Amino acid sequence: AGDAVAFADVRELPGPADQVLGDLLVDLNLTHPRVGDLLIELQAPDGRRFTLFNRRGGTGDNLTNVRFDPA
Asked: What residues of the chain score a pLDDT lower than 70?
């Protein structure tokens, strides 16, 4: 088994720093041979983390046209 590797793709949302988001949709296309290995999180500027995907999917591969919607 391999070691965990962290990968960060930082994207800043436009708007004032004190803006409160009421809703956020995240669309994702990701190529990976085993999605059960993946942990996908959003991190707020204050350091809080929000988990979108936590090692689900077993040995399946890729996340294609996946939408994370809090609704």
From this structure: 1-4, 71
CA atoms of 2 and 7, how far apart (whole Å): 15
Q: How many CA atoms lie within 13 A of 29 on its CB side?
A: 2
Cβ atoms < 10 Å from Cβ of 35? 19
Q: Give the model's pLDDT for residue 13.
A: 78
Strands 39-43 and 49-54: antiparallel
Euclidean distance between CA atoms 57 and 70, whole angstroms: 19
Find, among 31, 38, 29, the residue nearest to 58 by Cα: 38
Chain length of the chain: 71
